[in-house]
Amino acid sequence: MRKNWPEGTRMCVALTFDLDAETFWFSRSMDTINNPNLMAEGAYGPRVGVPRILDMLDRQGLKATFFIPGWVIERHTETCREIVRRGHEVGYHGYLHEKAYFPEQDRELVAKSRKIMKELLGVEPYGYRAPEGDLTADTIKNIMDNGFEYSANSMACDWPYYHEDETGRKIIELPSSWLYDDTSHFMFTLSQPERRRICSPQYVRDIWQSEFDGLYEEGGLLNLIMHPLVMGRVSRVNMLEDLVKYMKTKEGVFLGTALEISRLARKGLGI
């Protein structure tokens, strides 16, 4: 895919948000569901972070992708409907942000969450992001079987590529990196390693801008993975908006949804 984007595109930037909300905590340990403080921290994402992020995207005239667990759509329906109303993409991200340990479970979770998206939001998900990026050969087969257009899980490359099965079916992969995940830099936690350092927004901007500049020269993909409960704080949204403004000054940069980028990649790869 390197330097092979179509339609005058030089590189792509995907602004993706995992709206995990409370599931960010109880998908790891159900004990946390009885911890009001952690549940409140999770709820900050849809209640405060998302509106702030949506307003920033409106100011910049951009569309993003929100990967949302089915439970979050049920719990925070109006927030999710507002995401759709403002023209953003909604992708699959489990039901409880849980890992699917068996292919049958994965199929059941996809069917359940798709039904919720259709009934409550009126949308069909085209993108698949596994909770915690837990991708397996069975997962890829399930993604293909369910008609998804792309996967956004791997960390194998700096530009899009495709998975192919034994029958010749192909699906686009939009890779990322823990380097592009806001929780790697901002996520304070009392669990091990406890009291991890919280980085300044400028520190993270320097990293992301340096990666952007390098990928711009190589013709790559910068797939940012952000969480409204983390990125939705004022200083971080302001940092992201400043970074977006910088990216928009560069000729040939496409900032859009993961679905739009996957379709550009498909053209560039000739599949």
Describe this entry's structure for a reader.
The relative contact order is 0.20. It contains eleven helices and nine strands. The strands form two sheets. Strands 1, 2, 3, 8 and 9 form a five-stranded parallel β-sheet that branches. A four-stranded mixed β-sheet has the order 4-5-7-6, with helices on both faces. The model has no long low-confidence stretch (mean pLDDT 92). By secondary structure, it is an alpha/beta fold. The protein is globular, with a radius of gyration of 18 Å.
Give short descriptive properties of this protein.
alpha/beta, 11 helices, 4-stranded mixed sheet, 5-stranded parallel sheet, single chain, 271 residues
Layout: helices, strands, pairs:
Layout: E1 11-18, H1 23-26, H2 36-60, E2 65-68, H3 70-75, H4 77-85, E3 89-92, H5 103-121, E4 127-128, H6 137-145, E5 150-151, E6 161-164, E7 170-173, H7 183-186, H8 201-218, E8 221-226, H9 228-231, H10 234-248, E9 253-256, H11 258-269
Parallel strand pairs: 1-2, 1-8, 1-9, 2-3, 4-5, 5-7
Antiparallel strand pairs: 6-7
Helix pairs in contact: 2-10, 8-10
